[in-house]
Design brief:
This protein has three helices and no strands. With about 70 residues, it is an all-alpha fold. It has one domain. The model has no long low-confidence stretch (mean pLDDT about 95). The chain has helices at about 5-10, 30-40, 45-55. The longest helix has 15 residues, at about 45-55. The termini are far apart. The relative contact order is 0.20.
Length: about 70
């Protein structure tokens, strides 16, 4: 896990699917679990989704709060 990857979770949006446009850090756990079961996409998006799944699964989502841009 690298700092750039954590920052990407709170700045990049899901590019397609049911949650298109939602930040990766804000994707629901059941959606991340579905990817874990069915397979993450190839490339950077898949790596970010897998990382977010691990963070969510282990109850560590609050660690991303300080990285979020101000509203």
């Amino acid at each position: 896990m690298q700092a750039e990857q954590l920052q990407a979770l709170v700045t990049r949006a899901m590019p397609y699917g049911k949650y298109k446009g939602r930040l990766i850090a804000d994707l629901p756990g059941n959606y991340l679990n579905w990817f874990a079961r069915e397979g993450f996409p190839k490339g950077e998006l898949g790596r970010l989704l897998a990382l977010m799944h691990e963070i969510d699964h282990n109850g560590l989502s609050e660690l991303l709060t300080p990285l979020r841009p101000p509203r």
